[in-house]
Amino acid sequence: MDAEFFRAWIAEIAAVVEAQRDHLTQLDSAIGDADHGINLARGFSAVQAALAAADTPTPGSVLLLTGSTLISKVGGASGPLYGTAFRRAAKTLGDKPEVDLQGLAAALTAALEGVKKLGAATEGEKTMVDALSPAVVAFSAAVADGADAPVALAALTDAADTGARDTIEMQARKGRASYLGPRSVGHEDPGAASSALILHALRDVAARQAR
Ligand code: ADP
Ligand code: MG
């Protein structure tokens, strides 16, 4: 996977987030302030503009610009959290021109750690961590077992989907939704839903390029 692959991933995220903007905002209207879809659509559209205007010759440079732009352009909690995730992934990739599955697993693990640290969040608190964490664990395990890209990426997205769905029954302990206490139960966490979309975009771009 080269810089072009990572630019295609980010473009796919921008398209999916735009298409799912109202859905994500609806999820956030149930347990938050109804801006998650708006935040991410604005953020990734700014990222697309930044990538179009800059030279990003390596995967790391693509993800670094993505993360920095999200941090500077998204007002909600999700901007700094996703921004940190992309920046941590970028640091892990360094200036390598190509990334293999092991490298991607390491980058995604670092991204998850960045989110957990910045958000002071752990699994079971009804946040994006509940989609990202099982996904990264399943992907890393598949890669360690020698799985090829389609199998490892299917493990990634299946675990993200299950993780996002599992947030429905959780009570929010972090972020705005936590103010609702027990009333936060019964709704999918918007950040967990968007994390699953972001990982689906990765799988879809890889599937397209393999054809
Ligand atoms: P805001 O909550 O500021 O309006 P968004 O609506 O864009 O920001 O994003 C909300 C999402 O951010 C939540 O659904 C949750 O997944 C995630 N989130 C909020 N706080 C935290 C945290 N401390 N740790 C991890 N994720 C968090
Ligand atoms: Mg919100």
Could you characterize what this model shows?
- The chain is 72% helix and 0% strand.
- It has helices at residues 3-19, 21-31, 36-53, 59-73, 78-93, 101-119, 129-144, 149-166, 190-210.
- The longest helix has 21 residues, at 190-210.
- The model has no long low-confidence stretch (mean pLDDT 97).
- The structure holds adenosine-5'-diphosphate and magnesium ion (MG).
Strand content: under 5%
By secondary-structure content and strand pairing, the structural class works out as: mainly alpha
Q: How far apart are the first and last residues' alpha carbons, in Å?
A: 14 Å
Bound molecules: adenosine-5'-diphosphate, magnesium ion
The largest pleated sheet is described as: none
The number of distinct helices, counting runs of at least 4 residues, comes to 9
Report mean pLDDT, rounded to a whole number.
Answer: 97
Q: Can you give the helix content as a percent range?
A: over 70%
Low-confidence stretches: none
Instruction: Compute the number of strand runs.
Output: 0
Helix-strand topology string: HHHHHHHHH
Please give the radius of gyration in angstroms: 16 Å
| Gross geometry | globular
